[in-house]
């Protein structure tokens, strides 16, 4: 098929992210994440079905074909390797690496990916604690495991103390939240304390001032006991 256009890559990436966060990848969820109109999303999904990248299951969720899964994996790998390069080599602040990597993911070559794997400290996980998929294709064998099943989103967890495991893609573009939970340049391992005040969830990251996090974001903040 040659190089995919950016719109297709964005759709593949969002569907991957939804699956990774345990959210059914419905067209409505894609519409919300990309802030596009329903007709525009439906048109793109129909084109991707014709191109053999997706199928629509009986429960209306979007499923990758084997070809679509391979392309989505490579787009996500480029994105997360770009985040590592931006943070560790170029010194971009953690709260800005996601936005920058969204641009880089469309242009990185296989040669560049392999170079990033060689120069970063640990390419198995991105700075937000998410596994970098498909590293075996680049000759890297100590590939990170799938995100631990012990981790759960803050919704619907009760008040208490936890340890931050990872930040899903949906909250990585929230600079204040990312800045609050940065822990030695990354987020994994940061202590988390959840309290409720007047029906509002308040979260302390590493002893920082409490921040209010709505359900729409909290479900993408994954913690462990």
Overall description:
- The chain starts with 5 loop residues before the first helix and ends with a strand.
- The chain is built from eight helices and eight strands, in the order H-H-H-E-E-H-H-H-E-E-H-E-E-E-H-E.
- The chain has helices at 6-20, 27-34, 38-50, 66-89, 94-104, 110-119, 175-181, 215-218; strands at residues 54-56, 62-64, 152-153, 160-167, 191-197, 200-205, 211-212, 221-224.
- The chain has three domains: 6-64, Arc Repressor Mutant, subunit A (Orthogonal Bundle), CATH 1.10.10.10; 78-138, Diphtheria Toxin Repressor, domain 2 (Orthogonal Bundle); 152-224, SH3 type barrels.
- A hairpin with a 2-residue loop joins strand 5 and strand 6 (200-205).
- With 225 residues, the protein is an alpha+beta fold.
- Helix content is 41%, strand content 16%.
- The longest helix has 24 residues, at 66-89.
- The strands form two sheets. The chain has a six-stranded antiparallel beta sheet with strand order 3-8-4-5-6-7. The chain has a two-stranded antiparallel ribbon with strand order 1-2.
What pattern of helices and strands is seen along the backbone? HHHEEHHHEEHEEEHE
CATH class of the largest domain: Mainly Beta
- Secondary structure class reads alpha+beta
Mean pLDDT level: 90
For the report, how would you describe the main beta sheet? 6 strands, antiparallel
Relevant CATH superfamily of the largest domain: Ferrous iron transport protein A (FeoA)
CATH architecture of the largest domain: Roll
Percentage of β-strand residues:
15-25%
Oligomer: single chain
Number of domains: 3
Give me the side-by-side strand order of the main sheet: 3-8-4-5-6-7
The gyration radius over C-alpha positions equals: 18 Å
Distance between the termini: 45 Å
């Amino acid at each position: 098929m040659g190089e995919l256009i950016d719109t297709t890559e964005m759709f593949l990436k969002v569907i991957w992210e939804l699956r990774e966060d345990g959210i059914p990848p419905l067209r409505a969820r894609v519409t919300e994440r990309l802030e596009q109109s329903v007709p525009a999303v439906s048109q793109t999904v129909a084109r991707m079905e014709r191109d053999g990248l997706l199928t629509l299951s009986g429960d209306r969720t979007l499923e990758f074909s084997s070809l679509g899964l391979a392309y989505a994996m490579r787009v996500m790998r480029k994105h997360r390797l770009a985040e590592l390069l931006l943070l560790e080599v170029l010194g971009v602040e953690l709260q800005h690496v996601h936005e920058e990597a969204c641009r880089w993911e469309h242009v990185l070559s296989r040669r560049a990916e392999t170079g990033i794997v060689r120069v970063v400290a640990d390419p198995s996980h991105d700075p937000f604690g998410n596994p970098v998929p498909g590293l075996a294709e680049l000759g890297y064998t100590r590939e990170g495991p799938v995100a631990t099943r012990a981790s759960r989103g803050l919704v619907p967890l009760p008040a208490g103390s936890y340890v931050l495991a990872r930040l899903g893609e949906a909250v990585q573009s929230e600079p204040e939240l990312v800045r609050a939970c940065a822990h030695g340049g990354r987020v994994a391992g940061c202590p988390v304390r959840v309290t409720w005040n007047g029906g509002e969830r308040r979260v302390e990251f590493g002893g920082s001032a409490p921040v209010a996090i709505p359900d729409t974001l909290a479900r993408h903040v994954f913690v462990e006991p």
